[in-house]
Amino acid sequence: MDSAFAEIYIRDRRTSDRDPRMTRTPLVPDAARIGRTALTVADLEATAAFYRDVVGLSVLAETETTATLGVDGTALLVLRRDDDAPPRTDDRAGLFHNAFRVPSRAALGATLERIRDRSELSGASDHYVSEALYLADPEGNGVEVYADRPRAEWPRTEDGKIGIGTVSLDLDDLVSASDGAAAAPPGTTVGHVHLEATSLSASRAFYADTLGLQVQTESPSALFLAAGDYHHHLGVNVWNGRSRPADGRGVAWFEFLVPDEATLTTVRRGLAAADASVTEREAGFEVEDPSGIAVRFRAE
């Protein structure tokens, strides 16, 4: 970051060291959230059926090569068939999982019933801030479906950050809370996206230092970052030693939604000042992160 933007960041950071009341305004504001996520797939029909019948999304639009799924008319997932895209190899960066957040424990219990009936559960955890179910789609892409605990119950660390942990989840208790719904209810969103990166330090420089996401929880091999005071909108890990940029099937892009066009313009200018290559896309723009994963920005 040897740009004018970096100079502003360094100056503001030094100022904040002298006066903790003065801090740099992040490019991605506190009100931002994850919008849609997109996958490149080989078997469009089977993958769309999985997200419809197991995750509980509705098919909002489809062609021979694409399918858009969501809830209550809001698009959350875009699937694109590409017969020429090679399978993702073990050394490629990419998606760890897309995480769909349902608005209640009853909805999460219903999801567990659908998973048991039509798919296979690969994991389940209580993360203190949420309860989560894990599985994979027919193409091997990781999927999490989770429900947040009430925000007042989220644990805090001594420095005020949100504490995320992992303990076992009582599945019998969860399924007893099910409302039996056959589909995800209104209020379902993509709560966060979790990536497998080639470099944790480079990912931190891009997502935290440049975009201004707040690191909520970290370890030597993973970061969990958020816009504002959410537990995390983005997870990044290097657990599996991915050494090459993302390519082929798997994550095509994911997006941050910002509140308005003025904010979108601010983010675009800040990234350009940080020497990021910005590509215009529908109603917004796109940049690549250090692992070659496309990140889009769009106004609500």
Automatic annotation (TrEMBL):
Residues 33-148 form the VOC domain. Pfam families: Glyoxalase (PF00903). GO terms for molecular function: dioxygenase activity. Keywords: Dioxygenase, Oxidoreductase. PANTHER family: CATECHOL-2,3-DIOXYGENASE. It comes from the Archaea. InterPro entries: Glyas_Bleomycin-R_OHBP_Dase (IPR029068), Glyas_Fos-R_dOase_dom (IPR004360), VOC_core (IPR037523). This is Glyoxalase/bleomycin resistance protein/dioxygenase. The keyword Nucleus does not apply.
